[in-house]
Amino acid sequence: MEINKYIDHTNLKPDCKESDIIKLCSEANYYKFKSVCVNPQYVSLAYNLLKDTDVLVCTVVGFPLGQNITEIKAYEATLAIRDGASEIDMVVNVSKIKDNDYDYIKNEIKALVEVCNGLTLKVIIETSLLTDDEIYKVSKVIKESGAQFVKTSTGFLGRGASVNDIKIIKEAVGDFDIKASGGIKSYKDCINLINAGATRIGSSKSVLIMEELNNE
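Structure (tokenized):
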């Protein structure tokens, strides 16, 4: 298994510097990770650093709370794509899940799908805030709405991804992509989540994971 190809090498810290993003991109190119995931202000920098490599540039929209209105999320995505992002990780409006307003969620995702125009859209559901039933229901809505991934967590709230989360999502969506993120710190974590059904791993500890693997 080429674990590096599962990994979105991530730095979304609010205090990260330009030098941190340059380092992130250098590491991603060295280890041949699937993508780097950066905040929107750094998309252009990451794109220019990685445009001659196979590493994709991913960014976040409505991050980390998901409480922006749909039009703002759509405009964020539009600007990110303009700057070179080829993957968008959007935070769903968790309040609407709690209100059982799945029509709102479906319409919001569809609006982002239209903006992405074939580029990969991952929808972050923040599993630590949801019941198992809510995880199941919203995952089905995401698949029906035209996005490419269900993503577990922002990594900013609660416990992050769990094997149980992935199993519930997998039961809901079947043959569909799932990104596990939040609190993933070891090769064992990655393997357990992949075995449960994850097809992508988001981690800020990617280099440590690779070093652990290489030292085995």
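The first helix runs from residue 18 to 31. The domain at 3-214 is CATH 3.20.20.70 (TIM Barrel).
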